[in-house]
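Quick one, tokens below:
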């Protein structure tokens, strides 16, 4: 009997259904028909014992069919409840082992495997989410304070290695013709050797040549370690590749790792392209400044070299005050073009050897405004315009063009005012000879606190 029950448990659902249908309906109906036939057929004596046994077997058949059906229904109810739990977000739901074997038992096992995998995938997704959030947070902070492309790229590579869990990683950049890769940054437990790889040479050379990422397991790489490499592509140009190898947990890199690295590679490509463009802009900016300075010198030979010297003085004073590099550069650049507005002043006024008339003085006092307007269309000069406009203001408000005074003058502007005044005093003019350095210092000190800022004058006198 036990062997028969085990055999039933391992039967298919369809066979169990047929068996239960036979036991609960077909067999009882046949037995009932036999009883009716037995009773209605004329005979001398009715065998009540035989009828009792027939009724007994009808009941047993129905109960057996009910037992088989009940177990199947209970298993289906468990499955239904399990699916409802998963649908409601309970991915840890498990089905208890049933007495049923065969398809229902296999279905229960498959359900439990699916929920287990779902749990693992969810944990992996959560880990990946935290990893991406961490990477984006670090990269976001780096972008916000972006100053040095090398430091920025170092942070990207280091963060990527740490987040993905690689032992080693490096960033390689291409040459102008995209024919060679040179190591730019390398991090890891065993830093990868710096060397040059030609396009098509080995795994990394193939990534450069084909412009497609590579994801190799330990068995595929031939180095006993998993490798993942992604090209840095921008506008169909490959600027380099980023490569990681050997996961810390000794596993192979996954498709998720490839997705994260590919996304980061696109950001690195944009950063590299922006840096290249910024270098072009910077080059154009410097060339423009020098061209404008030369234009001013060509107009007024008496002030030739004046702008350059003012820039050098400003740089020295600014460093004495401990100003940041950006402010120092701004001061130096503004100094070089601070008199650009003199291009709009007639030669007969610039080179006049006799005292200027009142109208001529008013005209020459327009050169800061003319200079600002000349530079207004150039976005690169936006931060310089206020220095160019206001470099003839004075501490007591007696300057021009706005008559600003005291707290309205920024420290960089006060520095430029002193530097410009000093070089003007020590330079020859058509209408006067230059002062000596000592005389110019004494003049600055004489008007310190009235025309010029006292602290700026004191520091300037010390360094000249």
């Amino acid at each position: 009997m036990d062997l028969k029950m085990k055999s039933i448990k391992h039967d298919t659902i369809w066979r169990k259904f047929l068996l239960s249908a036979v036991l609960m309906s077909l067999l009882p109906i046949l037995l009932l028909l036999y009883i009716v036939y037995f009773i209605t057929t004329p005979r001398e004596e009715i065998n009540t014992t035989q009828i009792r046994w027939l009724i007994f077997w009808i009941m047993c058949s129905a109960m057996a069919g009910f037992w088989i059906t009940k177990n199947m229904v209970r298993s289906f109810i468990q499955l239904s409840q399990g699916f409802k739990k998963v649908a409601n977000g309970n991915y840890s739901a498990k089905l208890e082992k049933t007495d049923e074997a065969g398809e229902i038992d296999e279905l229960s096992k498959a359900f439990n495997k699916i929920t287990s995998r779902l749990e693992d995938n969810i944990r992996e997704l959560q880990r990946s989410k935290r990893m991406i959030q961490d990477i984006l947070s670090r990269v976001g902070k780096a972008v916000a304070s972006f100053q040095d492309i090398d430091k920025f790229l170092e942070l990207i590579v280091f963060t990527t290695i740490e987040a993905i869990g690689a032992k080693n990683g490096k960033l390689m950049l291409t040459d102008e013709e995209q024919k060679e890769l040179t190591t730019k940054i390398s991090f890891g437990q065993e830093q990868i050797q710096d060397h040059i790889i030609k396009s098509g040479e080995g795994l990394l050379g193939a990534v450069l040549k084909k412009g497609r990422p590579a994801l190799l397991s330990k068995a595929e790489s031939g180095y006993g370690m998993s490798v993942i490499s992604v090209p840095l592509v921008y506008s169909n140009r490959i600027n380099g590749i980023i490569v990681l190898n050997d996961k810390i947990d000794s596993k192979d890199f996954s498709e998720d790792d490839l997705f994260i690295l590919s996304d980061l590679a696109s950001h690195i490509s944009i950063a590299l392209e922006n840096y290249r463009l910024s270098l072009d802009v910077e080059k154009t900016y410097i060339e423009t400044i020098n061209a404008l300075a030369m234009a001013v010198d060509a107009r007024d030979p008496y002030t030739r070299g004046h702008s350059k010297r003012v820039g050098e003085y400003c740089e020295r004073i600014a460093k004495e005050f401990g100003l940041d590099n950006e402010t120092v550069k701004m001061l130096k650049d503004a100094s070089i073009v601070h008199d650009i507005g003199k291009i709009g002043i007639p030669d007969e006024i610039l080179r006049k050897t006799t005292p200027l008339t009142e109208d001529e003085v008013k005209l020459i006092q327009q050169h800061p405004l003319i200079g600002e307007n000349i530079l207004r269309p150039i976005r690169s000069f936006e931060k310089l315009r206020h220095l160019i406009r206001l470099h003839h203001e004075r501490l007591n408000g007696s300057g021009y063009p706005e008559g600003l005074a005291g707290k309205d003058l920024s420290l960089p502007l006060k520095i430029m005012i002193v530097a410009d005044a000093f070089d003007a005093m020590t330079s020859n003019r058509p209408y006067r000879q230059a002062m000596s350095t000592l005389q110019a210092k004494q003049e600055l000190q004489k008007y310190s606190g009235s025309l010029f800022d006292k602290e700026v004058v004191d520091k300037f006198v010390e360094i000249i």
